[in-house]
């Protein structure tokens, strides 16, 4: 039961940080999202995001900052195996399925639904 509670608390804190960035610092949603991705990448590069995911589960894995962590994780894993060029290929290897799914489903949704504007 505590796993669910910690996931809720950590995910909520991440969302609160995003809301603070938009309300207090007047960042646009795009800037807020980009900032959260960069924060996740930095924490992942420092090795701090994996323990957070282990502790909070989906509370840390689902928010957008996990995407930055995945990018760095893939780049570092591939760089260890293939060298400097692995940094570039690792970025795409780890995240390609999620990005591809988002593009495909967005395209299908655009065919099915009519935009308002």
Automatic annotation (TrEMBL):
Spans through the membrane: 6-25, 37-64, 84-113
Pfam families xrefs: SpoVAC_SpoVAEB
InterPro entries noted in UniProt: Spore_V_AE, SpoVA
Alphabetical keyword list: Membrane, Transmembrane, Transmembrane helix
The keyword Hydrolase is assigned to this record: no
Domain of life: Bacteria
Record NCBIfam families: spore_V_AE
PANTHER family to which the protein is assigned, alphabetical: STAGE V SPORULATION PROTEIN AC-RELATED, STAGE V SPORULATION PROTEIN AEB
Official protein name in the record: Stage V sporulation protein AE
UniProt source species: Clostridium cibarium
Protein's gene: spoVAE
């Amino acid at each position: 039961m505590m796993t669910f509670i910690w996931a809720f608390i950590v995910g909520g804190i991440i969302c609160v940080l995003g809301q603070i960035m938009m309300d207090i610092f007047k960042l646009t949603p795009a800037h807020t999202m980009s900032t959260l991705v960069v924060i996740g990448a930095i924490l992942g590069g420092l090795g701090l995001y994996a323990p957070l995911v282990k502790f909070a589960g989906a509370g840390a894995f689902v928010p957008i900052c996990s995407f930055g962590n995945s990018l760095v994780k893939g780049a570092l894993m591939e760089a260890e195996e293939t060298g400097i060029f692995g940094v570039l290929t690792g970025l795409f290897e780890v995240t390609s399925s999620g990005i591809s799914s988002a593009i495909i489903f967005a395209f299908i949704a655009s065919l099915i639904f009519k935009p308002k504007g």
